[in-house]
Amino acid sequence: MDLDMYKHPSTQANLKLLQTYGNHIIEPGFGELASGLEGKGRMEEPEAIVAYLENYFAKSADMKGEKVLITAGPTYEKIDPVRFIGNYSSGKMAYALAEVCAQRGAEVYLVSGPVALETPAGNIHRIDVESAEEMYQACIEHFPSCQTAILCAAVADYRVAEISDNKIKREESGELCLHLLPNKDIAAALGERKQPSQYLLGFALETHNESQHAEAKLRRKNLDAIVLNSLQDQGAGFRHDTNKVSILSAEERLDFPLKTKKEVASDIIDYLLKNRKNK
C-alpha cells in the first residue's frame, strides 16, 4: 500500500469501521515505499507483528478468574409517570470497559442505567436498573465478591421527594417547584466497605476546576484512582465515540490523548492492573 492510498479518506474510514467491530489493527510500517515516497504504507516488520501478537495474547487472560463490578449510563429519577430527572450519559465508556475486561478473562457485573446499547460479548452479567437507589442496591450486593469496581455511571445526585402518580398538568399546576432529596453516594459507600484486596476506580466529569474537584473526590470517597474527563475537551464526554482522559491517584497524574473509547478502556485497564499490583 502506498502513502496516498493509506491516507485516503475511504481507507481511513474503513479502518475505523473495522475497529468499531472489535478488530485490532496493526498499523503499516514507516519507510520508503514503492512509489519512491516515504511514509506509512509498507507492511510492518515481521518482528513487530510478532511482538504485537505476543502482547495481545498475553493480555487476553491477564484478568482470568477475576470479578469486576462496572456501573454504566445515567440514572432516571421519576417526577411523574412520563417525566424524569436524568442526564446525557450514553453508557458507551462503561460498556467499552466491560468489553475489554471480558476479553481479558474477567467475569463482569455490569450494573446499567437506561441505555440504547447491546450487552458486549463475553462473561458479562447485565443488571438493568433505572434509579440511583436501584443502582446503589445492586452495587452493595455485588461489590463484596468483586476484586475491582469501576464506577463509570453518571448517577443522579438528587431524586424527587414525592413522585406524582399521575401526569402533572400545566393547566392544573401552573408554576412547578420540585422538592429534591440527595441520593445515596455509591462511590462513598463502596469506599467505606472496600477491603485491602479490592481496587476502587471512580470517574469524574467536570466543567471547571477539573483537577481540584477530581482530587477532592479521590480523597473524600477513598478511591484508589479516578478517571477525569472534561466537557471542555472536544470529542470527549457524553455521547461521543471518543474520549480524552487523565488518571489521577494519590501518587501521580497521567494524561492521555483523544482516542476511541475502546482504546481508552484498554489504557484504563492496563493502568489499573499495573497499579493494583503496587498497592
Question: How would you characterize this protein structure?
Answer:
α4 (92-103) packs across α9. The chain is an alpha/beta fold. Helix content is 34%, strand content 24%. The protein has helices at residues 3-7, 9-20, 46-59, 92-103, 132-142, 170-173, 186-193, 210-220, 261-277, and strands at 29-32, 38-42, 67-72, 77-80, 83-85, 107-112, 124-128, 148-151, 158-160, 180-182, 199-206, 225-230, 242-243, 246-248, 253-255, 259-260. It has 2 domains: 3-59, no CATH class; 67-277, 3-Layer(aba) Sandwich (Rossmann fold). The strands form 5 sheets. Strands 7-6-3-8-11-12-14-15 form an 8-stranded mixed beta sheet, sandwiched between helices. A two-stranded antiparallel ribbon has the order 1-2.
In short:
The chain has nine helices and 16 strands.
Fill in the keyword field for this structure:
279 residues, alpha/beta, Rossmann fold, 2 domains, eight-stranded mixed β-sheet, two-stranded antiparallel sheet, 9 helices
How do the helices and strands line up, and which of them pair or pack?
Layout: H1 3-7, H2 9-20, E1 29-32, E2 38-42, H3 46-59, E3 67-72, E4 77-80, E5 83-85, H4 92-103, E6 107-112, E7 124-128, H5 132-142, E8 148-151, E9 158-160, H6 170-173, E10 180-182, H7 186-193, E11 199-206, H8 210-220, E12 225-230, E13 242-243, E14 246-248, E15 253-255, E16 259-260, H9 261-277
Parallel strand pairs: 3-6, 3-8, 6-7, 8-11, 11-12
Antiparallel strand pairs: 1-2, 4-5, 9-10, 12-14, 13-16, 14-15
Describe the global form. globular
CATH topology of the largest domain: Rossmann fold
Q: Major sheet: size, sense and barrel closure?
A: 8 strands, mixed
Mean pLDDT: 91
Strand-residue proportion: 15-25%
Number of helix segments? 9
Q: Tell me the quaternary state.
A: single chain
What is the CATH architecture annotation of the largest domain? Answer: 3-Layer(aba) Sandwich
Helix content: 25-40%
